[in-house]
Amino acid sequence: MRRSFLAAGTLALITAFLGTAEAAKRKVVVPHRYDGNWSIEVITQDGPCDRAYRYGVQIAKGEATYPGGDFDIRGRVSGNGAVRATIMRGSDGADVVGRLNRDGLGSGTWASTGLIRCTGRWNAEKRG
Question: What is the pLDDT of residues 56-87, one digit of tens each?
Fold first, then answer.
């Protein structure tokens, strides 16, 4: 279960709304360019965590949600697609960094922060 969380938590990578300065002045909500459904593949490269996972993540207004909802996601995707996030479940967690692009693809790395030490990479593809 903990191993699954470490990899699943890396999915959650992409959370927070960034609008344009002009939209903020007009108080208009602008859809985030990375909004939509994403398929995330998580691969463990080092450590005892399971080898690979694939999960669906939804991004709305820049905030990422995972339908399983059993972990806490805190992070941000910047206007240029840079991803920085922390995913927690109890005392276990993972730090996530990477980048999404306008073509609907993304990639990055992750590292666990709990007692079980694992590292790996992730790949993302926008599905809608």
Answer: 777 777 777 777 767 777 777 777 888 888 77
DSSP assignment of 63-80 equals EEE-TT--SEEEEEE-TT
**How do the domains of the chain map onto residue ranges?**
2-126
The answer to whether the Cα torsion of 9, 84, 81, 119 is positive or negative is: negative
Per DSSP, helices labelled H in the chain are 2-9, 21-26
| 11-41 per-position pLDDT tens digit | 343 333 323 344 444 445 555 788 888 888 8
Alpha helices in 10-118 (DSSP H): 21-26
CA–CA distance, 35 with 31 (Å, rounded to integer): 7
Question: ∠ at Cα 31 (98, 103), nearest 5°?
Answer: 45
CATH class of 2-126: mainly beta
- Rg, Å, the chain Cα set: 14
pTM above 0.85, yes or no: no
